[in-house]
Design goal:
- This protein is an alpha/beta fold and 276 residues long.
- It is built from 10 helices and 13 strands.
- The strands form 3 sheets. Strands 3-2-1-4-7-6-8 form a 7-stranded mixed beta sheet, with helices on both faces. A 3-stranded mixed beta sheet has the order 5-13-9.
- It is globular, with a radius of gyration of 18 Å.
Length: 276
């Protein structure tokens, strides 16, 4: 049983359902979900979900030049630490995912074993853009996927994220880069948390050629592609820069004989019609 946390709001509810469905195609999970009141009413009675109605508003965005929307986003983000803390207290670790993630293969057994390894304080996920100037500003690690184990590390990260402006840092990603230096951490390899940002520059566009079907599964190079980080259902107020990756992955799923992929696409069709 995996100990998993996420944040789900009215705007991201359907994407959260997609995340939950795709992960549970491969693993049994115990969920700790920070949410707004609307989502709380929808998920509070699900047996394997602990619903934490901590989000006051999802009228927020860190990509829009508005101090109010950016602060609302930070307030929302800080609730992820509460969800992770709950998971750690009950299970000794917590695996966090942003709601805009889908799984296309199981987490490897050798990685799952690390979740309970007492020598590790956490597992982090590098952006892997090879754009050093951009990562120097925005942070080397992506905070949409990580494993939290050490409560002290988690609380230091939370404190620095809350005060990121005073510290002159880019919200929670740059604080993680600093905090993790005092702890023992591992990192997920490149075929985990495959975000659209890993393909969108001239020097990384050829990585799309590494995505292919093998043994009925989606591969990235020589390894099964475990999960992808891209908006699929959320209505965002700007261009979905990851749409090319959605089209690519959904196209591979449709062309595969993998029954799980067909079931996923059927479920996607069902929840895309939901109104929240």
């Amino acid at each position: 049983m995996l100990s998993v946390a996420s944040v789900a709001t009215t705007k991201t509810y359907t994407e959260f359902l997609l995340l939950k469905y795709s992960l549970e195609q491969y693993h049994r999970c115990s969920w700790y979900v920070s949410c707004d009141q609307v989502v709380h009413e929808k998920i509070k009675d699900i047996p394997n979900v602990t619903s934490l109605p901590l989000v006051k508003t999802d009228n927020c965005d860190h990509n829009i030049n508005s101090l109010e929307l950016q602060q609302n986003f930070i307030n929302l983000v800080l609730t992820k630490f509460d969800a992770c803390e709950k998971g750690i207290e009950e299970n000794g670790y917590c695996l966090f995912f942003d709601s805009d993630i889908i799984f296309t293969n199981p987490i490897e057994d050798r990685v799952v074993e690390l979740f309970t390894n007492p020598s590790l304080d956490g597992i982090v996920s590098p952006h892997m853009t090879n754009n050093w100037a951009n990562e120097a500003k925005h942070g080397y690690y992506n905070v949409g996927m990580f494993v939290a184990k050490n409560l002290e590390m988690l609380m230091q990260w939370r404190h620095m994220s809350k005060n990121h402006r005073q510290l002159g840092m880019y919200y929670e990603q740059k604080p993680l880069e600093y905090v993790h230096r005092s702890y023992v951490t591992a990192n997920f390899p490149i075929y985990y948390n495959i975000g659209w940002w890993r393909f969108n520059e001239e020097h990384t566009k050829n990585r799309l050629e590494k995505l292919r079907l093998e043994n009925k599964s989606i591969y990235f190079g020589n390894n099964p592609a475990v999960n992808f980080h891209m908006h699929t259902l959320k209505n965002i107020d700007y261009q979905n820069f990851g749409q090319f990756l959605v089209d690519k992955i959904f196209g591979l799923m449709k062309n595969s004989s993998n029954q799980k992929y067909h079931e996923f696409m059927e479920y996607y069709g069902q929840i895309s019609k939901l109104s929240v």
